[in-house]
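Protocol step 4 of 6: record predicted structures for both targets in the notebook before any analysis. Target 1:
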Amino acid sequence: MPDTHPQRPGPAGRARLPRGAFALLAGAAMLTATPAFAQEVPQYGGTLTTTTINPTISALTWDHADWNWKYNQDDGQVYEQLFAADLTKAKRFGGKHAFTADAWLPTDAMRGELAESWALKDNPTRIEVKLRKGVMFPDKPGVMKARELVADDVVFSYYRLDKSPKKVPTYFDHVEKVEATDKHTVVFTFKQYNAEWDYRFGWGYYSGIVPKEVVDAGMANWKNANGTGPFMLTDFIQGTSNTYDKNPNYWDKITLNGKDYKLPFVDKIVYRLIKDESTLHAALRTGKIDLVEAIRWNAVDELKKSAPQLKWSKWLSARGNFLSLRVDTKPFDDVRVRRALNMAVDKKEIIKSFYNGEADILGYPQHPDYIGYYEPLDQMPDSVKELFTYNPDKAKKLLAEAGYPNGFSFKVQYCSCAPHHVDLLPLIAAYLEQVGVKAELVPMEYAAFLSAMTTKKHTAGYFMDNGHTNPTTTIRKSFVSGQTWNPSMYADPEYDKQMAAVYAERDEGKRQTMLKAMTREIIDKAPYIWLPTPYVYTAWWPWVKNYDGELRAGAERPGPIYARIWIDQALKKKMGY
């Protein structure tokens, strides 16, 4: 889940210039690197059938002005953005990036998508973006005639987001105005510098460039979707599938083995929505699904035995697990109670017994991939380490000191759509009961579950996972006053000031130091019961080519990755599928 990217860390020990020092950041026009292992000739045609990171959750909206975190998963093939991941920097090409983070593009791995080039300038502080020429919106009968994408489309998309009543608070507060200075130039003038300028309206969750004609026709209706991307949405069955056909007039291409190839390769993409894990695994095992992006640790051994030809990648989840405790309600307004509940849960035993070792004890709110921002538990202060050490006796003592010697009860909402949570939450409740605290578990369907939090009507306990997003937003969205994704309702004016200072700081090294301190502080205040972060597996059949486990080319956006995959149909047939 979202919502928000600072300047990214470079290799260990190497100083990086602040963004303000760059006079010009040029976007790569196309992917040109060739993987050392890939000598096959790309093939056109066929269908890529996949399940995304969220195989149980159907599209929640088709309108980016709804500010929904899942939008890019469903519309990111149709609507392009100013920037995207430079997939030539992936590990399989000799680079250093896995592209599994939910919404974090390191500076050295960002390319221009609709932007051909861009420059950060001062007096006033602004970003000047030059758009690619000749990028076309396709003809959409009843909606719009084919036409070129122009700067006015970018301006329109920005202001439509900014005026939405569902906008994430403070998200665009740094922007003074956005204007088209000519047909292919857009200027973003800032009130002040913001370290996430490229994320927030460049490659973020809500950054797709939408033509006015689609909005006029009714953007909430999937049948009206029409963007410049590699695929066109051609069918949608709620709770069952999304279908995308290739855009025959797509502008981008890829260079492999010295030869240019027009994108995309496959004729069609089908998203399968499958709520039952055993059904999903059976569909993968029998070749009915080519690629499954997220498989729980507990199914991997069986799948490796029953389908030994599958290819795999393993990655630490880009979502943190926690039981949020509303600090604006009793008894969770008392930090002693919150700390007690953390000590009451044996997190090391959960890793050993529940996850079979397939989890990291401290993988949230910062992710270990965030080099320069992340601190492992053994480097944390003793007061933080204490929260990850099982100590029910001290938990009982703290509860008594806080006025709850006999414990208390509270309600915990959770989503029945998440098998992982359905299995884990009763275990957490059992630990709490050992110190006299009863958690009353309340299952909910996803739409109601999400609405309860976003409207701030959720119960005192709220069990969820949440995307790290990036090293800055992981703190801002969850712990700054009034933010949408702040289920604990944490609010501290001094902490808010620290966050504002981070965004204003252009020097990445200083931001890293500031964010480390903020991370230690918020873990110590325990607005959540901090829980281990599990490892997740991606599996695909060998006929899925030009792929090695990459998941996101922006904020939850797989579209550019899918556009570069081809299906070796001869191999698929040879394997009996």
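Target 2:
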Amino acid sequence: MASKAWPFEEARRLLKRFAKSPPEKGYVLFETGYGPSGLPHIGTFGEVARTTMVRRAFEEISDIPTKMVCFSDDLDGMRKVPSNVPNSESLHEHLQRPLTSVPDPFGTHDSFGHHNNAMLRRFLDTFGFQYDFISATEFYGTGQFDEILLRAVEKYDEVMAVMLKSLREERRQTYSIFLPIHPETGRVLYVPMKSVNKADGTITFDDEDGREWTLPVTGGNVKLQWKPDFGARWAALGVDFEMYGKDHSTNTPIYDGICRILGHKAPEHFSYELFLDENGQKISKTSGNGVSIDKWLTYASSESLSYFMYQKPKTAKRMHFDVIPKAMDEYHQQLRAYVDQDVKAQLNNPVWHIHGGDVPISKMVVPYSMLLNLASVSGAEEKDQLWGFIQRYAPETSAETHPDMDQAAGFAVRYFNDFVKPTKVFRAATDIEREALEDLRARLVAWDGGLDADALQSEVFACGRERFDPMRGWFTALYEVLLGASQGPRFGGFIALYGVDETVALIDRALAGELI
């Protein structure tokens, strides 16, 4: 109960909600929302991962049962065609139709909405999240939303009053919380209401051609505008906790107000900062910028992605490929630290929240960043090429006994070839750098201390201590001249892994100008 980890802080705040009595429905409901207007991006995963972390912390401090719902707003009309799908030109004729009525450009599912929902569920299942999935199309169409929709008709003026305060004058003239779905075209219509009938739960409106229609609000004939839908969904499901991005935070009073009008206590919420691409732009489903979940999992473990999501949710993060190696190494550093920590420290450790307290043992005997350097100097195209170096450095390891090491070797080879290799730039050594490298070479030729990384690091240090001030210049030279990179590993550890003789040969090639 005393942990300062942010999931526990949120869990304690949520628990206060039930200080007087437990939830009437018998459980605490966590919700995450998803708009399937484009392929699921990494921010969607982050929302579910972080909500799961709060849920786990809540279960640690409370005996009240919990559930989590992932709600897809797939009845939303397609407002623009995503640029990152095949045959995108074929989708233009389906603009404003519900996403579950738009043909799937990939040709694998009943609709574009069904395709994106399936992708989302596959991603979430990969990480072992426990959740119930709800489709808005099904929720509206099967009558599960009918009670709240009829209440929205009854409370129409009150809900409209909340919305109208937030709208510009010209928008107020035509705005309605209800979006009818045209009986003939199937399009989601943004049209003003001529009347909202509380007696029979119907709305009357003119379509875009001036024809008048009257439809019941029940049975999937209408959907709510997205802001009213947020609050109405909370009321319909009895949501107790939901987190969302900072871009939603200004709408929180609107969501809360509508939820209360429709008869339910507003949930607890948590607003997180947004994910940005390499240019500092917000990640978007429809433009496909930033790192996708599949891309991250091509180069690093799922746990490293969860670790990245845990860190500082109130701080905006760049989601570019260069964050992956750091996340991998820090995740394993935390695993190694966890073993010797007391309970208080363990509950503050990110890996407790990633694994729900069932924390594995790290068998990463070589850091991911070091594997990248090893792939660089060895020209590795396959992970088996790295294993020869790894097993000489740590003879007790194998792919069978150290599966996380084996997995990381494969990730490192792919990452190196796709991102590091194309950007490598070697340079010639300056006179003072050449002198230091020749000194290091001589020391390594005479070396008989085995693969002691710390002792080798002392030799590296000795070569630069009297020649460079600050010493950073010496290590920069090692990286730029020998590895073709602006930064690199603790060099004594690199020599131990790559090999003393191999490092001598690398220095010879660099001094001969063969790497440039």
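Step 5 preliminary note on target 2. The chain is about 45% helix and 10% strand. The chain has five domains: 6-135+226-276, 146-224, 293-355, 368-423, 431-511.
Proceed to step 6 after PI sign-off.
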